[in-house]
Amino acid sequence: MIDRRKFIATGASGLLLGGCDRLNNSAGFRGLLRSAEKLTMASQRLIAPRDALAREYGEADLSPIFRSNGTRMPGTPEYARHAAEQFANWRLVVDGLVARPLSIPLQTLRSLPHRVQITRHDCVEGWSAIGKWHGVQLWRLLQLAGLSSRAKYIVFHCADRFGEKPYYESIDLIDAFHPQTLIAWGLNGHLLPIPNGAPLRLRVERQLGYKQAKYIERIEAVDSLGPIHGGKGGYWEDNVDYEWYAGI
To answer: Is the separation of the CB atoms in 178 and 135 below 8 Å?
Structure first.
């Protein structure tokens, strides 16, 4: 069986670098990608149990430097103010299709029971790094908020922007309730650095790096992705035709 991580890092990156504009402008090629996404998702869900774990590593395996992906510093005045305050007034909102909307101070969030895991981050750009993550399992927050039975997706709204377009991502409930899916506040024994997503980022360990949303401000439970921004479930999905499901 072809290792999807290796395929993305080699063959797929070659496609992205060589003639990607021509391919991305092809409706047939975009349709092929969407078909492959559905096949990948169906195959992974069929072969692996819902709670199958991504590989975890030991302390000796940690990468000496954990690179950042995407934005390294959100450029908004609001984020600059929070960073200057060391995020003392940052709150995480959990709302949408929930019985009890939450607005959780960062210090309270860090005091909740948390999970520590050492996993590998695989970036669509072709690099990988192993890091030690500290964070609250997402299912705990959804349980506290009283997730509605009507909810089908969880959307992560972030502080970074690309021009006028806000960054966001989304996952389904299978990944949301996976034991390794974290709202992470720490990396390698320290609070998250800004380039790596401070103060909060998503870790959904069975998907590629672009799904690991950084600078999370709000978590929204929804029954459809259609009405949200471009309707495809994420910034890159809306604007560059990345796959919504990036399972590895």
So the answer is: no
SS3 28: helix
DSSP state letters, 204-237? -TTB-GGGS--SEEEEEEES-STTSTTSSSSHHH
Count the residues in the chain: 248
- Give the integer Cα–Cα distance in Å for 197 and 195: 6
Residues 142, 124: Cα–Cα separation, whole Å: 29
Domains, the chain, ordered by start: 4-240 (3.90.420.10)
- Give the C-alpha separation, 171 to 227, whole Å: 15
Which band of pLDDT confidence, cut at 50, 70 and 90, is reported for residue 7? very low
> How far, in Å, CA of 99 to CA of 214, rounded?
26
Return the structure tokens found at 173.
Answer: 């409930």
DSSP state of 97: S
Among residues 117, 108, 138, which one has the least CA distance to residue 56? 117
pLDDT in tens, 27-64: 444 444 444 445 555 555 555 566 789 999 999 999 99
Interacting residues of 248 by C-beta distance below 8 A, sequence separation 6+: 4, 5, 8, 122, 206, 207, 208
Q: What's the first-to-final CA gap in the chain, in angstroms?
A: 13
